[in-house]
Amino acid sequence: MTGPSVERLHVGRPNLGPRDVFDSYVDRIYATNWLTNDGPIVHELETAIANRVGVRNCVAMSNGTVALEIAVRALGLTGEVIVPSFTFVATAHALSWQGVTPVFADIDEATHCLDPQSVEAAISPETTGIIGVHTWGRASPIEKLQNIADRHGLALMFDAAHAFDCTYGGHTIGGFGRAEVFSFHATKFFNTFEGGAIVTNDDDLAARARLMRNFGFAGYDNVVYAGTNGKMTEISAAMGMTNLTVLEDIKIGNARTHDAYAAALDKVAGVSLVVPDLAERNNFQYVVGVVDAGAEVRDRILSALHSRGVLARRYFWPGVHRMPVYASSALRVPLPVTEHIADRVLVLPGGPSIAAREVDRVTNAIEEAINAV
Ligand code: T4K
User: Fold this and answer.
1) Ligand 1 atom at minimal distance to the Cα of residue 13
2) Cα–Cα dist 53/199, whole Å
3) Of 43, 136, 343, 366, which residue is 20 to 30 A from 300 by alpha carbon distance?
4) Cβ–ligand 1 contact at 11 (below 6 Å)
5) At which residues is N6-(pyridoxal phosphate)lysine found (predicted)?
């Protein structure tokens, strides 16, 4: 049971850079009295991210969901867009909120990313685009999806919420498709409290996104588009600049925790760890277990962990297509792998702050729950 002295372990405990660096940015905010609306620290962050990713444009946003919505609009997507169902619900919501119908495609069992065959089967005359999700920081099958998009005249973009500082074919994620979207939410590898960004090599697309982010203002008193408010604040950008200074350390800490889980879970029959593509760079932000026996045992383990203060999560159960808001829509293609994986995934507390003894505490609890009759 959870005693008062047992620390609760979270999935997605925020990574915080040095307080003195953050304070120096706060001093600047106080000195300039500039809090938001395309401020200087947001500009610094956009430049730093564009350089790090190796793209021409970074448009910072208030959060990843608004960044997805604006990307969908700026790309002119209409009708139907193909997305995985095995994703955070925001990927589908970003379409629905723009009056675009999300059409769910299945995923690959090993990578948890879109299955290109399923994507192709889900295309209809109404389809205008594909949104791939780089699940757990592992790149979607980008080349295959680009090939499908090209053959069918579709726009391809990526929800790269999990994939900041990860690579595909040795190239940093952010420059693929027409645009990629990051989330800088508190629980992400790189956070700005709340935040997100559209990154793209398409200058016109970036200009449209900037316009949409700021109500459609093209200068004082001149609104040329029915935009929204997707602006990132200076304090968020300050947190971003602070966290960029420690990104490598966070990654090392994440990888160390991931390795510790890999070693510990290796001895637990019935649970395997999703291993990132080691030929690529990964941020190791997510520690993802797969429980062979299925939902009943997975949920038993989850309850056992929660009762011990280990707040593991069932991301992305039950699959977006089974969420009440989407459940009444007919499926275009079957989603057997999505259902299989959604019933088995258990995301464990990761990150640099998880000590080796805490990994043992988690894995021992998993083993006990599996062995309990
Ligand atoms: N696309 C994908 C593929 C995504 O995964 C996400 C977000 C998005 C798009 C949308 O991006 P944003 O609009 O969020 O920028 C969390 C996050 O809120 C969400 O950002 C994330 N994906 C999703 C996978 O996880 P919840 O509802 O599970 O969060 P919550 O409040 O339960 O927090 C998770 C754990 O973190 C808890 O144990 C508490 C701990 N925590 C949380 C916060 C906010 C802390 O320790 N400190 C904190 O400040 O969605």
Assistant:
1) 46
2) 9
3) 136
4) yes
5) 188
* Nearest ligand 1 atom, CA 184: 15
Ligand 1: distance of its center to the CA of 187 in Å? 5
pLDDT one-digit tens code per residue, 318-365: 999 999 999 988 899 999 999 999 999 999 999 999 999 999 999 999
Ligand 1 closest atom vs CA 311: 38
Could you tell me the CA-to-CA distances from 278 to 108, 138, 250, 346 in Å, in that order?
Answer: 18, 10, 18, 21
Q: Over 60: is that where the pLDDT of 4 sits?
A: no
Say if CB 164 and CB 182 are below 8 A apart: yes
The ipTM is: 0.98
DSSP-assigned letter for residue 56: S
Candidates 195, 229, 233, 243; CA nearest to 29 is: 233
Q: What is the side-by-side strand order in the sheet with 287-291? A: 271-273, 287-291, 345-348
Residue 364: per-residue pLDDT: 94
The catalytically annotated residue of 188, 231, 251, 267 is 188
Q: Cα(13) to centroid of ligand 1, in Å?
A: 10
133 lines ligand 1 (CB under 6 A): yes
185 CA distance to ligand 1 middle (Å): 7
Rounded Cα distance, 58 and 201, in Å: 9
Whether 188 sits among the annotated catalytic residues: the reply is: yes
pTM for the model stands at 0.97
Q: Span 247-371: which CATH code? A: 3.90.1150.10
Q: How is 147-197 classified by DSSP, letter by letter?
A: HHHHHHT-EEEEE-TT-TT-EETTEETTSSSSEEEEE--TTSSS--SS-EE
Residue spans of the domains in the chain: they are 19-244, 247-371
Q: Note the pLDDT tens digit of each residue in 187-228.
A: 999 999 999 999 999 999 999 999 999 999 999 999 999 999
Q: Is 64 in the pocket of ligand 1 (CB under 6 A)?
A: yes
With 80 as the cut, is the pLDDT of residue 259 above it?
yes
- Ligand 1 atom 46, closest CA: 13
